[in-house]
Each structure stands twice: as structure tokens, then as C-alpha cells.
Write the C-alpha cells for this entry.
Amino acid sequence: MESWRRYLLLRESVNPKILSMIDAAEKKGLKMYVSDKGDWGTAVLAAPKGDDPRPSGKFIAQVGWSKPPSYSGNCSDAMEVNNSLASDGFGPLVYDVAIEVTGGLISDRQEVSGEAEAVWKKYVTDRDDVQIDQLDILDSFGEPQLTPDYIEDDCDQVPAHDQHGTDWHKSPLTKVIRKSGTPVMDELRKRGMLQE
């Protein structure tokens, strides 16, 4: 019963740091613009363009994602970040929205900046409101696989393998980040800050 209560609490609550970012974005008059096309999409935090349902040209933060190419493996059916930008400390807010929209998000499979890796590390080490799933490595890397008889979690691990070699699996870049429910989007929607 206690684990069920915890599940419901996690499903309905917004991480306090993310909540403070929503408060700050609201004070600045910003809105979150979400476009989900199935195999790709974006979450953009920007000032509104008057009454136009589209954002103004100046994005404060953005995360774009797409389905990984077939040569990258199945990657547990997660979406791959293909671009991101952030200013004023709003990066985690758009990442949270991207995670909620996609149902599962992974880092770029080919190249990740130090700043972006720090974001993934925070999710893995500091966020108890997310689910972390381990990906495996493609057989072509010549490393022992974690689940050799299960191909659904096989995924390209270029940055993790380049940085950590045989300890590639310890990198936060080898994880899928998921959330139960859409608490951040629900909060934005409640405040009239979400454009879908």
C-alpha cells in the first residue's frame, strides 16, 4: 500500500526545482510550446507572439527529439535528443516536458556536450520523480552485452563508450529517462502556459 501511495505522489507531483522554474517562467510571461509529430517533436519555452499561438522568434530554451535511426538499435523505443539550447537556467524545465511528451528520452547517440551530460547525470542521481532504464550496447562495439538475449534495449553508445570504455554502462548517457504521468505539463496547462 505504501508503494502505491508513493507511486501516486510521484505521478501527481512536480519536482520542487522544476516548480520554481515554472514560477519564474510565469513571472516572465513565457509559455511552453509543444509540437509532437510522432517520430519527432520539440518543446520550446519562449515569449508569446501576441495572440498568435506560435512563439516569438527568441527561444529561451528548447529540446528537439526524434526516433533514433535504425542503425542506432531499438533503444527501448525511446526518443533521442537531437538538439537543445537553454538560457536563464530553464533547460531542465524543457527536458522534463520532452520526457513527458515522448514517454522516454535518451541523449544524442553520437555527441553530447559536457553541459548536456551534466543534465543527464542530474536525472540519474538527483531526481526521484523519474524512472531510469538501462540501455545495452550494440554488439558491434565488441563489448560484453548486459542482456545479450534481449535486443530491444540495444542502442548505440558512442559518447559513453568513448569516455568510459568498458565501463560504458556507468555513464548517465546510457539511460532512458521516463516519468509516470505528465505532472509538469499538467501544471503548465493549469496556469495557461502550455500551447500544444
Observations:
- The mean pLDDT is 91.
- The chain has one domain: 14-195.
- Residues 30 and 157 are 35 Å apart (CA to CA).
- Helices lie at 2-12, 16-27, 91-102, 114-126, 158-164, 183-190.
